[in-house]
Amino acid sequence: MAKETKKHAGQNQWREVLPRERRFDAAPWQATYGMYITGQAWVDELTLCVEGMEHRWGAGRLRLMVGPELREKFDRQRYLTNQAIWHGDLEGVKTQCRRMINGWKALDKAAGDAGLERCPTQAWEVAGASGRVHVIVRTIDDATDYKMGRQNACVYTLAEMAVILDALSPVEALKSAFPDAEVVQLRRDVGDALDDVHDTQGDLDDEIPF
């Protein structure tokens, strides 16, 4: 086996320093501390943009409030952004994050120009015998909206309630022990094309979306 060079040894040591949740093993933009700091600044800026849009329009809703042409462009840009973050160099991360922010702004403008408004989250709260408050909402996105800014909320979707009633299993205890746990095999009524994309090493076949 070939002996590891000092350069590659340093890169491997660098990758061990990064937290697992922020480390992309094939991403050249994380090759040095300086590159990581610059790239992560753009990823953070995009994250702040997404959080602001979800707070205004609801989690996962804005892309479904615009027409299919704009939604397709938006989803293609999401793919390119993921590709840059998972596999790209520093300039790619900066470029695609900037374009992704432009994509979010385009959706925001289109929804605003159309006079659309965020639908309020419908939630039903009930106190159990133990004094714990249980909350029932319609969809997974409603659950995400409801839990935004709240701590220790035990939230169930209608689909989860159907699973609980069918199985009569002790899901309440699991939900209490693991607040972020979800009942498996749940999907949104309207799907998300990128949920079926497990990697972004392939190239898209047309123009730059944003």
Summarize the structure.
The chain is mainly alpha-helical and 210 residues long. The protein has helices at 6-17, 33-57, 68-87, 90-113, 140-147, 158-167, 171-177; strands spanning 123-127, 133-137, 154-157. Helix 2 runs parallel beside helix 4 and helix 3 (68-87) packs antiparallel against helix 4 (90-113).
Describe the overall structure.
This protein has 210 residues and is mainly alpha-helical. The protein folds into two domains: 110 residues, no CATH class; 55 residues, no CATH class. It is built from seven helices and three strands. A three-stranded mixed sheet has the order 1-2-3. Helix 5 links the parallel strand 2 and strand 3. The longest helix has 25 residues. The chain is globular, with a radius of gyration of 21 Å. The N terminus is likely disordered.
Which key features would you list for this structure?
mainly alpha, globular, 3 strands, 210 residues, disordered N terminus, three-stranded mixed beta sheet, 7 helices
